[in-house]
Design brief:
single chain; 298 residues; six-stranded parallel β-sheet; 11 helices; 6 strands
């Protein structure tokens, strides 16, 4: 928040806290997507990795937190490799079809796995179009579904009877003003994070009431594996505390130095790329200097 000059008071409603004894396990569960509105989604892996990188660059990380985030991302990738976690896809499409009875033309926003599956399912009884950010990738569009440029989504949405957003991109696909233009059209938001601003007229994942016993099996599988991963992290932490780890101590000093310099660096009014480069240089320089000093001292 300091790095972005965001008021802590204004950002308070966006924060939540996890008790310390639950936080390590929570990050492992969170990373797999089994806690997400779109069950089993995998985009959160990139968000966690980006969060870890941002934390490093503003000096709010530590060797322990960095290790935890890296383990969480690796854990999530392993879980998605060992088991298919996106178990709700077909049930979601069936629930949408039931709600769209009597409506003819539907626009699906997005081109990921969920969007393609829903578009193919809708094509059985509806005239269906699907957006593409890159129209050269029409091979992603299921046969029979019409490809539409992402930039033309609003024009297409106005001509459609319903809109289903399953985009994995960041930022809202439709604004509040766009929703007003769509009027009484049925709008679904299946994206995670949400792709459409809060509105009573928008149907979200939770509103569909989709239930699948495979979800419980997947959660149990991930949960058991997360317990093992927590133990592995705690063992690593204990080992790192019990030995003289010069590199870890040097990183701690580098992170703390950058945290203290965060305000002065922000006041330099550098370009975004230059500021990132400067912060990385600070971390690298302080870490090397600290290692050199500890080695000479020993």
């Amino acid at each position: 928040e300091r790095s972005l000059s965001v008021s802590p008071i204004a950002a308070a409603e966006c924060r939540y806290s996890i008790p310390p004894d639950e936080s390590i396990r929570h990050i492992f569960m969170l990373s797999t997507g089994v806690l997400s509105p779109l069950f089993g989604e995998d985009t959160i892996q990139g968000q966690i990795a980006l969060g870890a990188e941002c934390a490093r660059l503003i000096g709010s990380s530590s060797p322990e937190l960095d290790k935890l985030f890296n383990m969480a991302v690796s854990f999530a990738k392993r879980m998605h490799t060992e088991r298919r976690l996106r178990v709700f896809d077909e049930s979601i499409a069936t629930a949408i079809l039931e709600r769209l009875e009597g409506r003819g033309r539907v626009l699906v926003v997005g081109s990921g796995e969920l969007a393609r599956m829903i578009a193919a399912k809708l094509l059985q009884s509806h005239e269906t179009a699907m957006t593409l950010r890159d129209l050269s990738k029409t091979f992603l569009v299921p046969p029979g579904v019409r490809a539409v440029s992402y930039d033309d989504r609003m024009r297409e949405a106005v001509l459609s009877d319903a809109v289903v957003s399953a985009s994995s991109g960041l930022g809202y696909t439709f604004t509040e003003e766009n929703l007003q233009q769509l009027g009484s059209k049925m709008v679904f938001d299946l994206a995670s994070p949400p792709d459409i601003p809060p509105s009573a007229s928008v149907i979200r994942m939770d509103d569909l009431g989709v239930r699948d016993e495979r979800k419980d099996d997947a959660v149990s599988y991930v949960s058991a594996a997360a317990d093992e991963e927590v133990r592995a992290f705690l063992e690593w932490k204990e080992r790192s505390l019990s030995i003289s780890d010069v590199s870890a101590r040097a990183e701690s000093i580098a992170f703390e130095s950058l945290r203290r310099l965060s305000g002065p660096i922000a006041s330099l009014s550098l370009s975004p790329d230059a500021e990132v480069g400067f912060r990385k240089a600070v971390i690298d320089s302080v870490r090397k200097a600290a290692i050199s000093k500890m080695i000479r001292k020993n």
